[in-house]
Write a structure and sequence with these properties.
- This protein is mainly alpha-helical and about 100 residues long.
- It has a domain of about 30 residues.
- The protein is built from three helices and no strands.
- The longest helix is centred in the C-terminal third of the chain and has 46 residues.
- The chain is flat.
- The mean pLDDT is about 80.
Length: about 100
């Protein structure tokens, strides 16, 4: 067999195994929403359901807040650097450009 067909067979095997695992696990995972709905109807456990909701919301928002905060920080630093270099260029105190060797 050629290397191409080995890769195709390997890919087909991976996809087949993945589909089988997903189908086998799907039934076990479908019980989770049922438990959540059952707990939501119980007045004694309504606060626990709210706690799950807010904790999931908090955990899902963290990557966006962290990467957004870092992105804003780097953007602000680049703008500050550009302003500083522009001010130096206008004042004529920018880095000198020598034509000699080190």
């Amino acid at each position: 067999m050629s290397p191409f067909w080995n890769r195709v067979a390997s890919s087909i095997l991976r996809v087949t195994v993945t589909v089988v695992v997903v189908v086998m696990v799907a039934q076990a995972l479908s019980a989770c929403p049922t438990c959540k709905d059952g707990m939501a109807q119980d007045p004694a456990r309504i606060n626990m359901v709210r706690g799950y909701f807010w904790s999931i919301l908090f955990m899902m928002s963290m990557p966006f807040l962290i990467f957004g905060g870092l992105g804003y920080y780097f953007y602000r630093e680049m703008k500050r650097l550009q302003t500083m270099l522009k001010g130096q260029a206008m004042a004529g105190t920018g880095p000198s450009r020598s034509t000699g060797s080190f």
